[in-house]
Amino acid sequence: MRSSILFATFFFLAACGREEAPLLAVHQILNKTGATLKERLGEPDFDFARSDKVTTLQWRDADGDSTWVYVDLLHGNASYVTYTFKKMDPFDTAEALRRIGLSVPEQEPEQVWENGSKRWKPFGQYHRLVVNPVTKLVTVSLDIESGAQREIAEK
User: Fewest CB atoms less than 10 Å from the CB: which of 70, 82, 144, 150?
Assistant: First the structure.
């Protein structure tokens, strides 16, 4: 009996110690199928095929905090995601990235525009990261068309 209680306590504490990925975590979205995304985020507000190759999904208020999520599926897998943090005023880059499971890049952006938008290309395992503080957008993409990115996406 005593060992059962210790065993149960151990598993309870182990489960509590694990951090769950944020609902909108980019690694839980990119390279996932539409069905997997619908299971994670619910039915999208928009779901339409733009071509034989590209399908677009969009959720408004995906996280209960007015965050919009726009995903392009390329050949059935998410290759591009844009998050719009509607209620984040003022926009906080670090907080927006934290909510999608990323942190502010240490390296300087590859491109900076007059409106304050920044692009990192490449960005870690991703093709690129774009942050636009004016429109409150964060975009992350894979380059599924390239062989190297396809290998990363398949892992």
Answer: 150
Average pLDDT value over all residues in the chain: 86
The answer to whether the beta carbons of residues 37 and 29 sit under 8 Å apart is yes
Q: What angle do CA 21, 109, 152 make, to 5 degrees?
A: 45
C-alpha–C-alpha distance, residues 15 and 100, integer Å: 22
What DSSP string runs through the chain? -HHHHHHHHHHHHHHHHSPPPPTT-GGGTTT-BHHHHHHHH-S-SEEEESSSSEEEEEESSTTSSSEEEEEEEETTEEEEEEEEETT-SS--HHHHHHHTT----SSPPSEE-TTS-EEESSBTTBSEEEEETTTTEEEEE--TTSHHHHHHHH-
In angstroms, the CA 135 to CA 121 distance is 20
Amino acid sitting at position 60: R
User: Can you tell me which residue has the tokens 């907080």?
Assistant: 95
Instruction: Specify the amino acid at residue 98.
Output: R
Whole-number Cα distances in Å, 81 to 12, 84, 96: 35, 10, 14
69-84 tens-digit pLDDT: 999 999 999 999 999 9
Quote the CA–CA distance of 11 and 76 in Å, as a whole number.
37
